[in-house]
Amino acid sequence: MLTKHQGQEVHGFMRYACAFFTGKYRRQVSSEVMALSPSTSCKSVKGVTSFCDYAIQMLQAACPRRLDSAIEKRPLLIFTDECWEPNFAGIGAILVDMATGQKLVCNGVVPDALIRKWNQLDGDHIIYQVELYVMVLIRWRFRSLLLNRKSIWLVDIGSTRYCAIKGLSQSPIMLFLVREFYELDSESPTYSWIERVPSSSNLPDGPSRHECTEALRILDIAHVTPFEHPDELAGRLL
Fold first, then answer.
1. What whole-number distance in Å separates Cα of residue 41 and Cα of residue 170?
2. CA–CA distance from 65 to each of 99, 150, 191, 218 (Å)?
3. How far apart are CA 38 and CA 162, in angstroms?
4. Beta bridge partners of residue 109, listed in sequence order
5. Is the CB of residue 146 less than 8 Å from the CB of residue 190?
6. Closest by CA position to 164, among listed 142, 188, 196, 140
7. Which DSSP category does 78 fall into?
8. CATH number of the domain bearing residue 210
9. Do 51 and 119 reside in the same domain of the chain?
10. Which residue range forms the structural domain that includes residue 171?
11. Least confident window among 62-76, 120-134, 149-163
């Protein structure tokens, strides 16, 4: 177990590396290092082992950060939302590319296998996990679109936003999901900023409930893009 001072030293070195020459994908590792010191809650052997395996994988993927002077300055706007009711976990998202004008309305449901797994580990109230899953799913599905682009994420749950920014959570599912979110930055980096949007102003609220008419009308597009759940991602999360 690290002492508090050792944890602070390792954390400082890794944050420096993230900021100056590797990028955000190692930020999650640096955040979790501090959680191993005795000043925080006690970690189980299984939890420490899981973190060490993850940290080794991310460190081995480390490569120099590249900055492109010709990067597109106009961002992608990404709005996410969820609908958690007994036996139903609806998800919705709106993507607007400020550079090309492309607009997408996405909706779907979280696979039952994931819901059952999350209920076993985190209990019945998993609304935060559902919205974070939407963010991970977007990173997987639209990795080519997000590659080397600025992205502004707008979520309507403060706890989900905090977890995505800080990379820490007492929930094992939230922690695993946020690891997946940042791991994608090692192969498909995006310059992301995560902010909160009030629920009353969050357009994907309708799509998360399978009510897409208003969102399609406001964005002036004709079709909904259904969420797909890649087998590889589902396997990793299970």
1. 9
2. 24, 15, 12, 38
3. 23
4. 90
5. yes
6. 196
7. E
8. 3.30.420.10
9. no
10. 76-237
11. 62-76
Pairing status of strand 225-226 against strand 150-155 = unpaired
Domain check: are 51 and 144 in the same one? no
Element at 104 (helix H, strand E)? strand 103-109
Q: What is the dihedral of CA 217, 219, 220, 224, to 10 degrees?
A: -80
Instruction: Report the DSSP pairing between strands 76-85 and 88-97.
Output: antiparallel
Q: Are 28 and 167 in contact (CB under 8 A)?
A: yes
Q: 18: pLDDT confidence band, cut at 50, 70 and 90?
A: low
pLDDT reading at 11 higher than 70? no
Residues 99 and 54 in one domain: no
- Specify whether the backbone of 100 is left (phi greater than 0), alpha (psi in -120 to 50) or beta: alpha
Whose tokens are 């682009």? That residue is: 149
Token output for 182:
């940042």
Clarify whether residues 86 and 199 are in a common domain. Answer: yes
Q: Is residue 68 part of a domain?
A: no
Residue 150 φ then ψ, to 5°: -80, 135
Q: Is the pLDDT of residue 130 over 90?
A: yes
User: Any idea what the Cα angle at residue 47 is, between residues 135 and 64, rounded to 5°?
Assistant: 55
Q: Which of 21-30, 40-49, 59-68 has the highest mean pLDDT?
A: 59-68
pLDDT level of residue 17 (50, 70, 90 thresholds): low
Q: Print the SS3 string covering 157-210.
A: CHHHHHHHHHCCCCCHHHHHHHHHHHHHHHCCCCEEEEEECCHHHCCCHHHHCC
Same domain, 120 and 187: yes
